Amino acid sequence: MSMNDVNGLVDLPLPAVSARVEALRIDRGQSMARPETLAEEIPVALVFNGISHAVMMASPLDLEDFALGFSLTEGIIARPGELLDLEVVPLPTGVQVEMRIPEQRFAALKEQRRNLTGRTGCGLCGQDSLQHVIRPLSPVSTGAQVLFTDVLTAMDQLGALQPLNLATGAAHAAGWWYDGRITVREDIGRHNALDKLIGAVAHQPVRDGVLVISSRASYEMVHKAAAAGFAVLAAISAPTALAVRLAEETGLTLAGFVRGERLTVYSHPDRILR
Description:
The chain is 28% helix and 33% strand. It is an alpha/beta fold. Helix 2 (63-73) packs across helix 7 (190-200), helix 7 (190-200) packs parallel to helix 8 (219-228) and helix 8 (219-228) packs parallel to helix 9. The longest helix is centred in the middle third of the chain and has 13 residues, at 148-160.
């Protein structure tokens, strides 16, 4: 019996990831009615052992990956195998992701339980203290060295594999490039896209290869990357100063402004071979 049956509702499909609307384009004083494709965003409730922990606004795709990645980067579980069960339940008001974790993990979660309503792409919304925001991390494992050209190739491939952004112009992406292949996840929120990717590659040797993102490298993006064990993070835009300090402290190689034939390395440049 599904959760919808229990609630007296019929089974519902997942919401669409985009919608068509009529808009007015004004260009050089000339106006024209035209259809536009817009990205959808929905509330996604993340529920652990029957208790709602977080509600995030997200794109309604790859939600299993999102839930696993969020659980790992938030420290709710320590490894993928601790996510014992997962069910995505569409509801009239959004989507609920029901998860089951070990009792000791759930007890620790209740100790610091917080209710948060995450704005689109909000990486640290709802934290109730500075200590919870600036969480300590284990040092990043050494990781393999990568060629300068591999980082550029990874970013090029990321740009070519974003169907939601291509259709709407409103989505971010994160990709893991390894051994000539790339895994990509998209979302309206850059933090959500990274959590989705982390969930998708949670069983892979992520300390090798390159993590690429279609956004700036803010503190929380570096924090998530380091927490997941990536060794090289490359962003299409700039990092923040705090992000660079965190990357330096954790041993993460951080590159920014990865565009065309150039990039700038801000920490641990020894992993990138020229």
